[in-house]
Amino acid sequence: MTVPPDLLAALTRFVEYERILIALDFDGTLAPEVDDPARARALPAAHEALLCLRELPGVTIALISGRALESLAAASEFSGDVPLVGSHGLEVRFDARDAHPAIDAADRDRVRALQSRLEPLIATTPAAWLELKPAGVAVHTRLVDAPAASVLHDAVTAAALELDEALTVREGKNVVEFSVRDATKGDGLRALRARFGPNAVLFAGDDVTDEDVFAALEPHDVGIKVGAAATRADYRVADPAAIARVLHSVCTLRQSLGIAQ
Ligand SMILES: [Mg+2]
């Protein structure tokens, strides 16, 4: 299996920019989906390719995820020097020294009220679970059969919006999230762009919320959709194994340019 020719041509152009940012979603993009999110890990080949890229002059790698920042840091297993964007753009950590406070006391009260309202509903569906996040809650239905998941989805959505109509609702694969802030992964990319000033960006992601990043890309950037769902990205690959090959290719192409520090 190799990188498709049109994507390879785009990567070859991409690596020639002086400063490049390679930003990636984590779950379903670097890491295969697993039932227990705490056990998700990047494919070894993807992790190796990122370590390779991290060492190259003019290259910044970063992760943009819906996970809470803490959870993303743990699952990605990178030391503090890899910039991380968590909670769909709300939490940003450029390096180990700075973690931006995500929310204030009033927001925390809204999150607690939301949690109290939804927990009894979720308890009626044993295989569903609630994930508490810094700015909201996510209701996971990956292990619930489709009809029951649909019923629970509608029930929690109605209850959440009845409680707090200002909530932001984010639909994902087998998850619906209610947040007291309306940040998107596109905001996360804009924060990374402002901080690192890349000449070009590569982003890959697999879920609906990644479309906000694809929408924030510029004409010379490279957007790669993982999986078969509809997308506005220009390129598409099948799975995390294919992303690992893409990242390996980017590293090899960049090294072949012999750009010095
Ligand atoms: Mg994902």
Brief summary:
The chain is α/β, with parallel strands linked by helices. The protein has 2 domains: 5-99 and 184-257, 3-Layer(aba) Sandwich (Rossmann fold), CATH 3.40.50.1000; 105-179. It is built from 8 helices and 11 strands.
Description:
The model has no long low-confidence stretch (mean pLDDT 93). The strands form two sheets. This protein has a seven-stranded mixed beta sheet with strand order 4-3-2-1-9-10-11, sandwiched between helices. Strands 5-6-8-7 form a four-stranded antiparallel beta sheet, covered by helices on one side. The protein is built from eight helices and eleven strands. β2, α3 and β3 form a beta-alpha-beta unit. The chain is globular and about 60 Å long. The two termini are 33 Å apart. By secondary structure, it is α/β, with parallel strands linked by helices. The protein folds into two domains: 169 residues, HAD superfamily/HAD-like (Rossmann fold, 3-Layer(aba) Sandwich); 75 residues. It binds magnesium ion. The site of magnesium ion (MG) has 7 residues, from loops. The site of magnesium ion has 7 residues, from loops.
